[in-house]
Each structure stands twice: as C-alpha cells, then as structure tokens.
Design a protein that fits this description.
Elements lengths: L4 E7 L3 H15 L3 E3 L8 E6 L4 H13 L1 H6 L4 E5 H7 L2 H5 L5 E3 L7 H9 L4 E3 L7 H4 L11 E5 L1 E2 L10 H4 L4 E2 L2 H13 L4 E5 L8 E3 L2 E3 L1 H8 L7 E5 L8 H9 L6 E3 L7 H6 L6 H14 L4 E8 L6 H14 L3 E6 L16 H24 L5 E9 L5 E6 L4 E5 L8 E9 L4 E5 L1
Parallel strand pairs: 1-2, 1-3, 3-4, 4-5, 5-6, 7-10, 10-13, 14-15, 15-16, 19-21
Antiparallel strand pairs: 8-9, 11-12, 17-18, 17-20, 18-19, 20-21
Bound molecules: 5'-deoxyadenosine and iron/sulfur cluster (SF4).
Iron/sulfur cluster binds next to helix 1, helix 4 and helix 8.
C-alpha cells in the first residue's frame, strides 16, 4: 500500500473553527490523508482562517508567504485556504497569493474530497456557496478513533443579529440549527469514544431552535436531554447573545447538575449610546439584570465576556461606562479587543476613534479584567473543585485538566488519570492556571 498522504491543518479564530478543522481532517481522511504536525512533511496544507478582525485576516497572507519554499521543494504540495477569510475573499485569495490551489468556505467543506481530487489533477478549486444541503450529513466519516475527554459539538451556525461591527452574518451565513436527533447521535458517538465533556457550539448558540420530537426545541431542552446520556458528565455552551437567554436556560444553570457553572455572555460595551450604535438591541441595565437572574439561579456562576473598545463614536464617558459595568458585574475572565473596521459591515462607514485613544482604553480595560481574573482565581485557593483531566502535564506524573469553572488545573499525582473527573483541592493560583491536590 502506498504511504498515506499527509495533511497539515492550521486553525485560527474561534472554537467552531477548531471543530471544523477536525471535520475537515476526517473528510480528507476518507481520501487517504493522515494529519501531521509538521508543515514541511505535508502533501496538503490547509489554513482554516478567521475574518473577525483585520489582524486575523492579514495573518493568513503572511502565513501563506512562508509556504513558498515548501512548495518550491515539493511541487506536489497543495495549499488550501478554508474558513471565514475564504468565504469573505473567495477567488481574490488566489489573485493575491498564487500559491493557493484551493479555497473553501465554512459551509462547503464536505466537498473537500472532490476538490482535493480536482487540484491533484492540476485544477484550482473555489467553493464559497451557501448550499441547501446540510454539510454535516454529507461529510465522509473518518475512523471512529478514541477521542480526547473534552470535545466540541456544533449545534447551531450563523447569525441573524447583524451587530454593526460583525462579519459573522456574512461569513457564516444565516442562523441554522441542527436537528435534535443528529446532535444526539453525534453526542452519543462522542461519549462512546471516551468523551466526558461536550461544549455545544454556535455563533449564537442560545438561539438554538432545532427540530425535534414534538416540534422545535430550545437550547435548555437540548441540554436537559443531553444530560440524560450516561457517561456524559459535563455540558457547556458558547457563545451567547444576552437577548436569547430564555427563562428555561437560566433555570437550567440552577437545576441541571451536568451544566457547568461557567457562562460566556458578551456585552461588548457598558454604554447604552454605543450599544445602540452597535445594534446590540439591549442596554447595560438589561444585561446587568440578566446577570442577576443567572446568579440567583447559580450563585457561583463564573462569568466571561467579550468587549470592544474604540467603536466609532465612543467617548471617554462611554468608555468609563464600560469600566463601570465591568466593576459591577465582576468577570472571572474575559476577552477584549480594539475595534477593527470590517469591510461590508455598517460600522465600517463611520469615522474611527484615533488609534492611540483606542489603544489606551484597551490597556486600561485589560488591566481591570486581568485584576478580576486574578481575584477569581485566587478565590479558588482552599476550595474543592471537580477537575476533568484532559492531558499529561510537563512534569512527570502531572495531569492538566479543567475545573467546573473552566480554570486550568495542574495536579501532580500518579493516581490522576486521563479522562478521570476527580475532586481536587486548589492549593495555589498562578498567572493562568491553578495547582491542586487530589482529595
Ligand atoms: N472588531 C473588534 N472586535 C470584534 N469582535 C467581533 N467583531 C469585531 C470587530 N469588528 C469581537 C466581539 C465578539 C468577538 C468574537 O470578537 O467582541 O464577541
Ligand atoms: Fe472568526 Fe467568526 Fe469565522 Fe469564528 S465564525 S472563525 S470568530 S470570523
């Protein structure tokens, strides 16, 4: 038998891209590819790209340039661009970087095997359709190998919210939910392959409305059904919009033990003026009330968020309002970004805030968020948490896992096993992780 061809995939952007990269590797697995960690060994290089901010998109072109010597050394090497930059720029990518053989968007990667065959014949292939068919149903299945203990599962894709800054509705398309039975089938398969924790993914995951027995199911109902799968111990979901946080989902945080006490709920800004300009359709006040309800259901809920500073028109006072919201809510961790104008979005037409002003604000916001993150971590010291061990650590006998609150936890103990969920007492808090001991 011929040696298998080697596939190198590099993933940028969100967790959904991580999930998609795994599916692409499976799809090309059916064409005889195995994955490699080394681009130099590859017969096919795929960049699974992100278009969310300008920097993310530009990285793709600098990375592609670096593959030039590899292609010179191996004329059979094929290079593909997948993901959201592929969707947004399509054929333009090949014009800008002639090294590229293949461009495939996030909704058509089930067609990769055919595209791969075409490029092997010397063709160039571009597919950025939004097809009628469901890609998940048309993906060739890879080998049913054992999986790492924590897995992602896409249940919803796309977005109809059209926040004024965001490319997602254009790159991922309209909001679509996968039917309940397909989600269940995939979850059961993951659990059979050793998965103990599933993170349900969607650009707007709490707007999930999949067809199921008896009609349309919301996310809370889906989570409650998934919780019945024996062997599945933990459920998470990301990422959510405040306006889709329905009563039953709030309640599930209090009464569904498998739903972990961690929630990523982006607010973007604490200024009502800016929230309006962003077309977020909620206020700072309504967000804070929502957090109160969530905390009433689950008092120890650890909150995460996303923030944008320097949105067009943002004044010093608007920014102070954001800091005030952060102080009031108290985040366990959060992501913050400088606004980046994205072509085709409504906000891109507006006059930007000077870059030095935006940088200074970002710096101040990040200082506050880091302080809160450290405080939340330090508060774990002395507490008992449950940890799912996901991989071996660097030290002998060390395991690294995640607590219920999604903190990375190191435990050095020969009894700690991969895939085990153990009670751990936290003994120390470092910059980005906690150290603990088995109880
Ligand atoms: N500029 C900066 N940040 C952005 N985000 C989305 N679009 C932009 C943009 N144009 C951030 C938001 C979102 C996260 C995924 O990325 O905070 O929640
Ligand atoms: Fe980036 Fe958004 Fe695409 Fe994810 S969906 S890769 S965050 S542009």
């Amino acid at each position: 038998m011929a040696d298998p061809k080697k596939l190198f995939i590099k993933t940028y952007g969100c967790q959904m891209n991580v999930y998609d990269s795994e599916r692409m590797a499976e799809a090309l697995g059916a064409s005889g590819y195995v994955t490699t960690e080394r681009a130099e060994d590859a017969d096919m290089i795929l960049l699974n790209t992100c278009h969310i901010r300008e920097k993310a998109a530009e990285k793709v072109y600098s990375e592609l340039g670096r593959f030039k010597p590899l292609k010179a050394a191996n004329p059979d090497l094929k290079i593909g661009v997948a993901g959201c930059v592929a969707q947004a720029e399509g054929e333009e990518i090949m014009r800008r970087q002639p090294l590229v053989d293949l461009v495939v968007g996030p909704q058509t990667y089930h067609r990769l095997p055919a595209m791969e065959a075409a490029v092997r014949q010397g063709a160039r292939a571009v597919d950025t359709d939004f097809p009628e068919e469901d890609k998940f149903e048309h993906l060739p299945k890879g080998p049913r190998a054992r999986r790492a203990p924590a897995a992602f599962l896409t249940v919803q894709e796309g977005c109809d919210k059209f926040c004024a800054f965001c490319v997602v509705p254009y790159t991922r398309g309209a909001e679509v939910s996968r039917p309940v039975d397909r989600v269940l089938r995939e979850a059961e398969d993951l659990v059979e392959r050793g998965v103990r924790e599933i993170t349900l993914l969607g650009q707007n995951v709490n707007a999930y409305h999949g067809e199921g027995p008896g009609g349309t199911w919301g996310l809370a109902r889906l989570i409650r059904r998934l919780a019945k799968i024996e062997g599945l111990a933990r459920i998470r979901f990301t990422t959510s919009h405040p306006n889709d946080m329905e009563d039953d989902l709030i309640a599930a945080h209090g009464d569904e033990p498998k739903l972990m006490p961690y929630l990523h709920l982006p607010v973007q800004s604490g200024s009502d003026r800016i929230l309006k300009a962003m077309a977020r359709k909620h206020t700072a006040e309504s967000y804070i009330r929502l957090i109160e309800r969530l905390r009433a259901a689950r008092p120890d809920l650890l909150l995460s968020g996303d923030f944008i500073v320097g949105f067009p028109g943002e004044t010093d006072q608007d920014f102070e309002d954001t800091l005030a919201l952060v102080r009031e809510v108290g985040y366990g961790q959060a992501y913050s970004f400088k606004y980046s104008a994205r072509p085709g979005t409504p906000a891109a037409e507006k006059t930007p805030v000077p870059d030095d002003v935006a940088s200074e604000r970002l710096h101040r916001l990040q200082a506050l968020l880091t302080e809160q993150q450290r405080a939340a971590q330090d508060a774990m010291v002395g507490r008992e948490v449950s940890v799912l061990f996901e991989k071996a650590g660097r030290l002998p006998g060390q395991m690294v896992g995640k607590s219920d609150y999604l903190h990375a936890v190191h435990v050095t103990d020969p009894r700690a096993e991969l895939g085990q969920i153990a009670k751990v007492r936290i003994v120390a808090s470092g910059p980005n992780s906690l150290a603990g001991e088995l109880v």
